[in-house]
Design brief:
The structure is a single chain. The chain is mainly alpha-helical and 169 residues long. Helices cover 60% and strands 8% of the residues. The protein is built from 6 helices and 2 strands, in the order H-H-H-H-H-E-E-H. It has helices at 2-5, 10-25, 32-38, 42-52, 59-69, 117-168, and strands spanning 97-102, 108-114. Strands 1-2 form a two-stranded antiparallel sheet. A hairpin with a 5-residue loop joins strand 1 and strand 2. The protein is elongated, with a radius of gyration of 26 Å.
Length: 169
């Protein structure tokens, strides 16, 4: 953008943002002009692109993710529970938090457990966020591969046009 406008102000930032969004979201045959028209103009493309990043998950969302994903079907281990681990009789959850002591040899031992609601809720929120981040990271690798393939195809097309123009001239 600086090459065209010579400086970088809000207008140039908006144009650069639109170009980036178009490049990432367009279909193979869609022109920049059609993309901008379909999205309602330059400012609308810029605004909607920044609003999509504002959708953040809350601790309650992460807690729900973990509670739904960690149903016990794929348990790391199973063991009997002691009564002292279920000290919170008012707790209506099927979960408890275990404190695991890890030694230098990579072995772990459950040394305490609790079903205190606040502790369980915090653990579920942390674990839900970690699971979401791991899933997002795995999905972004697939997305990055797609972007790489699309960009490679675009560069090939561009190089072919440049070479065709040079040989025609």
């Amino acid at each position: 953008m600086r090459v065209v406008f010579g400086q970088e102000s809000n207008r140039e930032y908006a144009y650069a943002r639109v170009l980036k969004v178009w490049f990432d979201e367009r279909s193979d045959t869609q022109t920049l002009t059609n993309f901008v028209i379909e999205r309602g103009g330059i400012e609308n493309v810029r605004r909607t692109a920044s609003n999509t990043q504002a959708n953040k998950l809350t601790a309650d969302d992460y807690r729900d993710i973990a509670a739904n994903a960690l149903t016990g079907e794929h348990a790391l281990a199973t063991f009997g529970l002691h009564n002292y681990m279920l000290s919170d009789s008012e707790n209506d959850t099927d979960y408890m938090v275990a404190l695991v002591h890890c030694d230098r040899n990579g072995n772990g031992k459950v040394v305490y457990g609790s079903n205190k609601r606040a502790l369980v809720d915090n653990a579920l929120a942390v674990m839900g966020k970690e699971l979401d981040e791991q899933q997002t990271k795995a999905a972004s690798k697939d997305t990055l591969d797609d972007v790489k393939q699309r960009k490679t195809a675009n560069v090939k097309q561009f190089a072919a046009r440049v070479l065709a123009n040079k040989t025609a001239a």
